[in-house]
Amino acid sequence: MARILAITAGAACLANTASAASPPGKPWWDPDHDKGGWKHHGGWGWGGWGKPPKGHGPPGYPTATSAASPTGTAGGLPLVDSEALQASILEENLSEKALELQEAAYSTPNRNRVFSSPGHANTLDLITGYLDQYPDYFSYYRQPFTALYSQASGYFTVDGVNQSAAVFEYSPSGDVSAPFVAVNNLGCEAGDYPEEVDGAIALISRGECEFGLKSSLAGAAGAVAAVVYNNVEGTLGGGTLGEPPRPEGPYVPSLFTTLENGTAILNALDAGEVTGDLFVNSVIENRTTYNIIAQTVGGDQSNVLAVGGHSDSVFAGPGINDDGSGIIGILETALQLSSYSVNNAVRFCFWSAEEFGLLGSEHYVTNLNASEVEKIRLYLNFDMIASPNYMFGIYDGDGSAFNLSGPPGSAQAEAFFEDWFASNGLNSVPTEFSGRSDYGPFLDAGIPAGGLFTGAEVEKTEEEAALFGGTAGVAFDPNYHQVGDNYTNLNFEAFVANTKAIAAAVAEYGTSFESIPAGNSTTKVKRSPSGVKRRGSSHCNHDHPKELL
């Protein structure tokens, strides 16, 4: 029985914020709002968090570096060389940092890195501890924001037999005993809920629309609880209702169960009434957490490559693949980059509260003004790059595989990674560019994006096993969102290859954006697969396949 799983929460719409410039004389980074601490050359803040001195500010803040030294860093370092940077990516360094990240979780009572927890605080300190070793190369700051935290436990039984289930994030608490009533279709319309649902437990199939919509429609129909059953076989990857409230109706205590359990209850209903007992204990509260935003001091500060991954885990485990692998790959690339100069600034982003709905990346992007959005020429996302039964997945930026493309430049990012894998004798496949990981807010702001992904709980096909090895019929990551997502869950062949690909991309775009069209943040991209509007932020398909809908 899962206690807490990854979640998506409502977040602010980008349209107005991204297009609105900061007030005259005020930088996009507001020192009176984001008091998390800007650190440069070993010092925290200036003058009681006042305006930093000229030449030293958060990434995107107008600096002397951007005006006077657009093509290099102090010390006359050689321009980054792609082959040399890739060669510096070593398995032993990735392994060492993965063990350190695991210790960051295991040294705390809950042995996880969920946002605002001691394990997450250790994670942030681990990242900044490495950055502090290169004070003349990187500037960074901690960007605070408040996020709605949810932690829950629960179960349900049928005829006294406990059923495997996970509590949806943001589910209210409840303790009910009531008959099951099957909802018509997929439960995405008010008319799908028969009168008999009033006072009953609504049994709903997963599919087409958000879990939160199903729960709220059940509440509007008078249900006392809801059980959503999966529409594919396999383990449960977790889910979220999204941050309340919803206009359709109140949430009811809600659980997610397997296709097998749902089918068994449906079959039993054909023979007569089926009674269930359901219990949920939920804690929902606001908590403060932090993004870490680091940037090369050198390079053109008006032409920025941003790379990112999320620093938090789910409650169930330490998250060493999800997304420890991504942030370690990014961090190791950053540290090795410090031996070189760059023509374009490179921004390394470590997002918090991704597992609660892309909240860190949403907060960051919504607080950029239009001119700062324009400076980000490309965003690359790395979320789960060392899955044990891996594939080499590349976000489908041109939309040729899934009919969901990104802003101009996204196709070129996809092509870059395709060429890299091919040139290294490795197969790759497109993965859906749905906007459901931390690249989503960048797409919404019209910023081109790309990235890599090695798979979550979806089972590997025979065709994929032929391409990548591994075992067909087994999840890419059987420990996805589970206690077993630890150091032993990592596949280092995938980990090293993907980190070298990150290094290649950083070298490519840190040198030139010649292949990327000039920025146009007015080009918004709507992510609405299956006709479902993204409510705030979402990241099923991890892209996390079983979290929002």
From TrEMBL:
One of its GO terms (cellular component) is extracellular region. Residues 62-72 have a biased composition (Low complexity). Residues 540-549 have a biased composition (Basic and acidic residues). Its EC number is 3.4.-.-. Residues 18-73, 518-549 are annotated as: Disordered. It is an enzyme of class 3 (hydrolase). GO terms for molecular function: aminopeptidase activity; metal ion binding; metalloexopeptidase activity. One of its GO terms (biological process) is proteolysis. Its main location: secreted. Residues 291-505 form the Peptidase M28 domain. Residues 1-20 form the signal peptide. The keyword Glycoprotein applies. Residues 524-537 have a biased composition (Basic residues). It is found in: Secreted. Its cofactor is Zn(2+). Belongs to the peptidase M28 family. M28A subfamily. This is Peptide hydrolase. It comes from Hortaea werneckii (Black yeast).
